[in-house]
Specification:
2 strands; 95 residues; single chain; two-stranded parallel sheet
């Protein structure tokens, strides 16, 4: 979220779509956004509570397809993807 804020503050006409799981959406939805350029989307309900190993596994194995579906419906189309170093599947989708 901090990187999104930094990018949006430097270029006010940029549109940033911040894709998160249901858990992170709940944690971040009350955090102030710099403007309307950050959109929180819940691509998949991977609710596993405090079971972090299961959450991690779900993000690595179950989030790629819903994320790709989100990309297919974003208008204007996505021109860049910035992903966590752990999300190796994001590189393939970006390509």
């Amino acid at each position: 979220m901090n990187l999104c804020k930094l990018l949006a503050s430097g270029k006010p006409d940029i549109l940033i779509t911040f894709v998160v799981t249901e858990e992170w959406l709940g944690c971040r939805s009350s955090e102030p956004k710099p403007n309307d350029s950050i959109v929180l989307i819940d691509p998949t309900p991977i609710f596993v509570g405090v079971d972090f190993p299961r959450f991690y596994e779900a993000v690595m194995t179950e989030m790629e397809t819903p994320f790709e579906e989100v990309l297919d419906h974003i208008d204007p189309p996505v021109t860049a993807i910035i992903g966590d170093v752990e999300l190796r599947w994001a590189i393939d989708l970006g390509n």
